[in-house]
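=== Structure Prediction Worksheet ===
Name of assembly: unnamed complex
Input type: mixed (protein and possibly other molecules)
Chain count: six
Listed entries:
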Amino acid sequence: MPIVTVQQGPRDIALKRDLVARITDAFVEAYRIPAETVQVWIHEVPADSWGAAGKLVADK
Amino acid sequence: MPIVTVQQGPRDIALKRDLVARITDAFVEAYRIPAETVQVWIHEVPADSWGAAGKLVADK
Amino acid sequence: MPIVTVQQGPRDIALKRDLVARITDAFVEAYRIPAETVQVWIHEVPADSWGAAGKLVADK
Amino acid sequence: MPIVTVQQGPRDIALKRDLVARITDAFVEAYRIPAETVQVWIHEVPADSWGAAGKLVADK
Amino acid sequence: MPIVTVQQGPRDIALKRDLVARITDAFVEAYRIPAETVQVWIHEVPADSWGAAGKLVADK
Amino acid sequence: MPIVTVQQGPRDIALKRDLVARITDAFVEAYRIPAETVQVWIHEVPADSWGAAGKLVADK
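=== Predicted Assembly ===
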């Protein structure tokens, strides 16, 4: 029963719907497990709360 | 000093208050450690950002 | 379908068995949800990989 | 630059190799972002450290 | 390519900007890796959703 | 009481000791909080369990 947690910037529901379907398919195809056993949780983090190379995305 | 992270859909404060007390008791009783050493963090994820079986909860 | 992730130092299976049962009960009683919907994942981190107050547990 | 964290039981490298490729494709296709921006981290948790319905997988 | 996830109460952007710069420097200096390889994600959790010693911060 | 979780490849204890001290200092200096309130947890993930751009580090 794999649990998938995604950290990303905010995106709209249509994109997230598509992503959750495709990630679930990835498990079904790679591990041969039922889709019902896969959960996907998307944590959307605003641009003032994450960054790379020492800078917030909000400042780029 | 165990750290507990919960991923769930949104719930009201009375339920979360009760949950945090009960999870902390679970550690005190199972591990015989002081309640002061236990932290609980609840990450509430909206229904358009998580799902199972390839579908968002918002679409069910 | 709440997901619980615990970060802790290593403990033996009897203690973890008891903890998972008690944490699950905490959700059943606080949220009135079936035990079957609760998953608990324990990440055991060795003493040379975590610390507080700027010091590794392995050095205390 | 999405970060994907998977919590699962142990699996062999061939299955994980396939999974990482397929999850990355899921982002490329759903979000139209370059594969280079996607990281996948798999946390393998032994059967005595996770469970559902109040029971460890090791006890089932 | 280390990924840093911070769980904390809400703080303003000036403090988070400073924190992300300093955490990134910590990796550059301790591990001798380029700043570009370090990502920091801050998950801000409101006072009604986390606690210690069995009590929510919102109730203290 | 911020909680820091680091996902990285394995490194030796001397490097982790230095990292934990420096990350803790980052919080003390940026947020003006006591070092005692900061916990750092390092999750070391082997090269066959994480990757970027669709490939495991073990295969690069």
